[in-house]
Amino acid sequence: MTDTVTETRTPAASNQAALRAAGNDHILMHASAYRALAADSGKRILVEGKGCIVRDIDGNEFIDALAGLWLVNVGHGRAEIGEAMARQATTLAYASSTQATTIPAIQLATRLAEITPGDLSTAFFCSGGSEAVESAIKIARQFHYHNGEPKRSKIIGRRGSYHGATYGAMSVSGTRPMSEPYHSPFMHGVLHASPPYCYRCDFRHSHPACDVLCADQIGQIIEYENPKTVAAVIAEPISASNGIAVPPDDYWPRLRQICDTHGVLLITDEVINGFGRTGKMFASEHWNLVGDIMTMAKGLSSGYAPIGAVMCRPSVMAAFEGDNRLSHLLTYGGHAAACAAALANLAIIEDEGLVENAARMGRLLMDGLEALRSHPTVGDVRGLGLLAGVELVKDKATKAKFEE
Ligand code: PLP
Q1: Please, where are the H alpha helices in 56-196?
Q2: What are the angstrom distances between the C-alpha of 401 and each of 150, 335, 398?
Q3: How many angstroms separate the CA atoms of 371 and 243, rounded?
Q4: Using CB atoms within 10 A of its CB, is residue 39 exposed (0-12), middle (13-18) or buried (19+)?
């Protein structure tokens, strides 16, 4: 293994027991039964990472196959990102996002305007994916308000999709069965359509005979609700939480057209899809898709700093001319050290050809995974680039799922 962690940062054994105890007592884990995790030998405490490998406090090494939480796109231990952050933090770490901007924020916004699809050109910065989705929803609603259509407030998401954990993002996510018992009522005015999840099509159709009925269904929902009340459709180009549901090639052109026909904004969520993972800088590029508003986070800094962004087209920004200021602010939006991290991260992605690498390695991965299709529990294999999934089933004929 060439990528092994070499440097040792493990605390002395006597401190380890105290650390474990403190971790059990004082850390509330995200979305995990934390007492159960603690019951065993304590929470896993990671101390170091290099490339694809992370090492825990006991010296065990793991392949970080999920790249943290789908985000360490350039690998762990990239000193150049840390150095760029340190340089910026000791020069100017922060400026108020309401009154000023900074050089790294301008450079990052400019770079994003260059690499995002079509004419997406103006960046609103935030701290992560959920905030990006919240911000996109508010920008979409306020856009319609200034455009003289204040009743356009409804947002359409898709079942099974995940867009974040804050209230608006959770509400537009199609993961209600998981959050409803604890967190309802949700944001008002949200509707959910069928995803392009061909292996388990809601309509029991198959492509191409279906003529992407799942895209047309969104048009039907818009018409039924009255287009003049619908602000936006939000969707990932490839839905990760639907088990990497890669849509058929005619899905996105159809949905883009439906949104245009009804004056509904399309929010493309590239939080997981973006920054090379699918073998293109953004997954939208696989279908020449340009969202009116695009959300991103995760791979924007490869996790070295908490940062997200919302990119908007000039047609959206036109509503915010003159006195129409955006009614939304986030203290950490455009944090200078975080922007410096993102710039250094983008330079690595570009200099090392990581997008092309993901396309190349993705083909290898898919070839390997395709060979598993004959296995009795492999129901489906799908993916693009290094975003890939294998759907395991109890029974291939009925597609019955395993219990949790
Ligand atoms: N959007 C998508 C598609 C995501 O997968 C996620 C998180 O996994 C989010 C938004 C929310 O991002 P965050 O966890 O950074 O708030």
Answers
A1: 67-70, 79-92, 103-115, 129-146, 167-172, 176-183
A2: 44, 44, 9
A3: 19
A4: exposed
The pLDDT score that the predictor gives to residue 12 is: 65
Enumerate long-range contacts of 178-187, CB under 8 Å, 24 or more apart.
Answer: 187/155
Cα–Cα distance for residue pair 175/182, rounded to 1 Å: 12
Whole-angstrom Cα distance, residue 45 to residue 62? 12
Residue to substitute in 125, 135, 137, 271 for testing ligand 1 pocket (most ligand atoms within 8 angstroms of CB): 271
Number of CB atoms found within 10 A of residue 43's CB: 18
Do residues 319 and 147 lie in contact, with contact meaning Cβ atoms separated by under 8 Å? Answer: yes
Residues of the chain by 3-state class (helix, strand, coil), percent to 5: 40, 15, 45
Task: Write out residues with Cβ below 6 Å of ligand 1.
Answer: 128-130, 133, 162-164, 236, 240, 269, 271-272, 297
Q: Is the pLDDT of residue 357 over 80?
A: yes
Alpha-helix residue ranges (DSSP H) falling in 230-353: 251-262, 314-317, 336-351
Taking CA 120 as the corner, what is the angle to CA 222 and CA 217, rounded to the nearest 5 degrees?
20
305 CA distance to ligand 1 centroid (A)?
A: 15
Distance CA 364, CA 53 (A): 20
What's the half-sphere exposure (Cβ side, CA atoms, 13 Å) at 269? 30
Under the banding of pLDDT at 50, 70 and 90, the label for residue 185 is very high
Distance CA 359, CA 271 (A): 18
DSSP annotation of 287: G
Say which residues have a Cβ less than 8 Å from residue 102's Cβ, sequence separation at least 6.
92, 95, 334, 336, 339
Q: Which residue has the tokens 């990581």?
A: 354
Asked whether the predicted pLDDT for residue 6 surpasses 50, the reply is no
- Kindly report the protein residue whose alpha carbon is nearest to atom 7 of ligand 1: 164
**Ligand 1 centroid distance, CA of 296 (Å):** 9
pLDDT, one tens digit per residue, over 221-274 is 999 999 999 999 999 999 999 999 999 999 999 999 999 999 999 999 999 999
End-to-end CA distance of the chain: 33
- How remote is the CA of residue 1 from the centroid of ligand 1, in Å? 31
Here the tokens at position 249 are 């090639």
Q: Which atom of ligand 1 is nearest to the CA of 241?
A: 5
Spatial CA neighbour of 144 closest among 324, 328, 329: 324
